[in-house]
Amino acid sequence: MHLLQPELHSRRAFLRRSTQLGLAGTALPFALNLAAMGEAAAFAADDYKALVCVFLYGGNDYANTVVTYDDPSYNRYSTIRGSIALPKASLASTLLRPTTPLQGGRQYALHPAMTGLTGLFNSGKAAVQLNVGPLVVPLTRAQYNSPDRRAYPVPPKLFSHNDQQSVWQSSSPEGSTVGWGGNMGDLALSSNGNSLFTCIAVTGNAVFLSGDSALQYQVSTNGAVAINGVKNNVYGSSAVRGALSALIQQPSAHTLENEYTRVTTRAVTSESQITSALAGSTLSTTFPASNPLADQLRMVARLIGARGALGSKRQVFMVSLGGFDLHDNLIAQQPVLMQRVSDALTAFYNATVELGVADKVTAFTASDFGRTLSSNGDGSDHGWGSHHFMVGGAVKGAAFYGTPPPVSITNTAAPEDQWHVGQGRLLPSTSVDQYAATLAKWFGVADSEMAGVLPNIRQFGAAAGRPDYPVDLGFL
User: Fold this and answer.
1) Can you give the pLDDT of all 476 residues of the chain as single tens digits?
2) Ranges of each domain in the chain
């Protein structure tokens, strides 16, 4: 079986970017974010659309997030989880009510702290993708256990935090330089008046937003990051500030110095553009206080509100929340995290309604991996597949997508044991590539361009002889 190696794609991007930065000079931290954008977009956009990746760092515990609720499944869940099982009585207020009930009487509820997301789901504005995770090719448990890794390849370095974060975002382990959000950005560059604002991170550096040409522009929850010596007076003197500004932006006959100046000037200009655009973008929607994810999503909403001033037609954003590596204290600590996710996403959806773009903005969650269904005593350990949320007016909500995994941790040939690889670690029945391709298609990526965005997608779908692993999951 011949597979495209994602690391080759990353290497090409690295070489291209190295050439760009060799000309630009890298003494400024802005160089990586502001290198020249060299390739035209592959599609033109007449409307506005945005994707917002909400990454949950640490590996979220799926079993206590989307909780099996029907009596037979809940009883097995409670027996397996023991002291970290949520009481069924606490789940009644967050019971999910899909428009089309699941087969076999399966039911799910959300964590009791997730009342906001429950409301979005039951009102048709959110959906759940069941058991999704990185796959190179479709796999059964028998194939996963096969020693023939050439015939049945698995994602590299499973169960490792840094590597699986990178695999989720880029199809390659830690060290990758190109992510699928950035690859979509590559195609959208010329759709935007200023290509620099195509991929925007409000969470620091992440490979997800890096493309071959599209590089992420980083902002804080307060807005653009300024060069203090240019933005503010130096030693209380506006004259010194003016002199410094002129000095670092003046042209030079020396090639490297001149490129350094151009990057600096671009940084100063971009900060001014963002600051000016945000000044005209206000929201009346209330975002919860003391919630770092809500702070990030509020800035995303304001940037979306400023899309006209920024000349943006297609944008990809990334925000994140950490703290999900709960080997211990799961019952005590997960409720705070779940409430932050739920409240932040609910406020963000309400903000898109206020802005009149609810059907033009789709937020989705991602995480390193799911966790074990079995308890380690006070928490759960690293897993693989997990359940994730899609939120927005374009989402075909009040629905579950994918295959509900059986609640089991035993190792037998019984059908209920075929979707885990030990301790209730879910073997994904839906790949990240399928999940991402569904988002990308809605964003405007053509079928012919999809393999360039997602290197493994050619192993899935009817064209690969796997109609049971569709390229479009149907949630948008």
Assistant:
1) 444 444 444 444 444 444 444 433 444 444 334 443 333 445 667 899 999 999 999 999 999 999 999 999 999 999 999 999 999 999 999 999 999 999 999 999 999 999 999 999 999 999 999 999 999 999 999 999 999 999 999 999 999 999 999 999 999 988 888 999 999 999 999 888 888 899 999 998 999 999 999 889 999 999 887 555 565 555 556 665 555 555 555 665 666 665 655 555 556 667 778 989 999 999 999 999 999 999 999 999 999 999 999 999 999 999 999 999 999 999 999 999 999 999 999 999 999 999 999 999 999 999 999 999 999 999 999 999 999 999 999 999 999 999 999 898 887 777 767 888 989 999 999 999 999 999 999 999 999 999 999 999 999 999 999 999 999 999 99
2) 32-222+290-464
Grouping H, G, I as helix, E, B as strand and the rest as coil, residue 100 is: coil
Distance of CA 360 to the CA centre of its chain: 17
Of the chain, the end-to-end C-alpha distance in Å amounts to 32
Please tell me the distance from the alpha carbon of residue 146 to that of residue 422, in angstroms, as a whole number: 15
Q: CATH top-level class for 32-222+290-464?
A: alpha beta
SS (H, E, C) 12-53: HHHHHHHHHHHHHCCCCCCHHHHCCCCCCCCCCCCCCEEEEE
User: Residue written as tokens 């799911």?
Assistant: 370
Task: Annotate 284-345 with three-state secondary structure.
Answer: CCCCCCCCHHHHHHHHHHHHHHCHHHHCCCEEEEEEEECCCCCCCCHHHHHHHHHHHHHHHH
Structure tokens at 129: 């993708």
The model's pTM is 0.89
Hey, what are 435's tokens?
């999940």
